[in-house]
Amino acid sequence: MPSFPRFVSCLAGLAAGAAFAAGPTLPATPDSWRAAARGDIEAAVQVTRENHPGAHDPTNPSFLARIEDARRHGLALAARVEDAAGYVAAVEAFNARIGDGHAGMRVMIDEAALPPPRWPGFVSAWRGDALYVYASRPGEPPVGSKLLGCDGRPGEQLIRENVFAFGGRVEEAGQWWTEAPRLFVDTHNPFVALPQRCRFEGQGKAFEHTLAWRPFDAEARRWRQESESLDVHPVGMSEPRPKLVWVAMPTFHPNEAERSAYRAMTRDAAENRARWLALDAVVIDLRKNGGGNSAWSHDFARALWGRERVDRALADFSARSEVWWRASPANTDYVDLIVQVLARQGQPGQAAWAREQAAGMRAALARGEPYYVQKKDASASVAAAPDATPPFTRPVYVVVPGDCASSCLDALDAFTRFPNTTLIGAPSSADSTYMEVRRHPLASKLARVMVPNKMYVNRGRANGQFYPAAIEVRDLVWSSETLLETVERDLAQRRAHAQALSNTDR
């Protein structure tokens, strides 16, 4: 099947782009900000009910009830909005109640129009069980200090109330790694009580510290970026030591140079088979990967494990999966637009496939049906021939960041089909089954509504399912050196285990 779904993702802003070219005119008074928040939440709910696949999803009967709960909560906060920061907070609370990254709204207010964020002179990082101080200014809590709580509330409760109530998805383990550090970023949310006095544990003793909030600066931003991942490699292949290959995949939205790098390392794995079969291990590094086109990871998997093996494993994984396109008038018009764009770009195969989906959606509309069920690719049901190449059984370690979602999860779907794969790092995030988002503009221009065009039914990976890490890397510094040390420790344990078994057999 052509990779049309990823083209929808790449082109998703086209239909709305012109409407936002000039930027929104911001409300001038507290009353007008309140009116904007109320009006945009109501409009987003209407657009969602009319176009979102979840509105008629027989496998998710609580979807509309969740939207209504989010509406009530969002409107209650909207009644208290007085400025841009309050508008943003009300929208984020509305989104958080929905609990789906592919639903709700995305605020389009320029950062310069918002009050500058503040921080308390230190940056934190979630490492599996709590927030720890990653970096700090003199006089602030020492690096490595563990947060116990603030102002009489436990740390986890604070994170739930101040962070996840306004963004992220609290039930996904990976989201704690990416979202929890926002506890110590002040975005001027009027609906939370900013921590003032916190308790930490460090060097075997507990201590209290009064927070001194100050404007964000370059050092704060640098530390925040480094706390997520340090020294991420560009797309490509390296060998940090003999017989260990490091494969960096920080993006599935590659530019031309990155596409060449992907092709080169995929070709190397396929053509230099004997060298790869003799390796001690392969490390596939997904740090910073924000998704894109899953073909890049799947092509590499085919080169590593064998094309037929991978295709057969993926076919088995998705054997029951179906794609249902939500046939609303606006969604159908949008897919028609994508057909035109692909045709202008000189991609006739992709355009023809998209045209088929649009025609199916129009036919479903004419029949008064909410969905067009995409036809299965007949070739997908044909059993793959046995793979003639020797199987790749050397250890494969996949470094997973907490925000791994979308096509990053597609990569894990492929890699984890094989028992020699070990996930290290953090638990991943998760996707709902609602995919291929278009961005529907609101009249205020302050936000856009996220509207998926399709949903998966019986997908191999369930709605909201994430991948846990077999080896969580809880070191404060997520550097390549730290991750390599983690791999080497596990390899040493494997060798020791194999030696013990060998001695027993004797």
Q: Can you give a write-up of this model?
A:
This is S41 family peptidase. Keywords: Signal. It comes from Massilia suwonensis. By secondary structure, this protein is of the alpha+beta class. Among the domains are: about 120-215, PDZ domain (Pdz3 Domain), CATH 2.30.42.10; about 235-320 and about 390-435 and about 460-505, 2-enoyl-CoA Hydratase, Chain A, domain 1. It has 16 helices and 19 strands. The protein has a 6-stranded mixed β-sheet. Helix 9 (about 255-270) runs parallel beside helix 11.
Per-chain topology:
Elements: H1 4-10, H2 14-17, H3 30-51, H4 63-78, H5 84-98, E1 105-107, E2 118-119, E3 122-126, E4 131-136, E5 146-150, E6 153-154, H6 155-162, H7 173-179, E7 197-202, E8 205-210, E9 214-215, H8 218-228, E10 236-241, E11 244-248, H9 256-271, H10 273-277, E12 281-285, H11 295-305, H12 307-317, E13 322-326, H13 329-344, H14 348-366, E14 371-373, E15 396-400, H15 407-415, E16 421-425, E17 434-441, E18 447-457, E19 471-472, H16 480-505
Parallel strand pairs: 11-12, 12-15, 15-16, 16-19
Antiparallel strand pairs: 1-18, 2-9, 3-4, 5-6, 5-7, 7-8, 10-11, 13-14, 13-18, 17-18
Helix pairs in contact: 3-4, 3-5, 4-5, 9-11, 11-12, 13-14
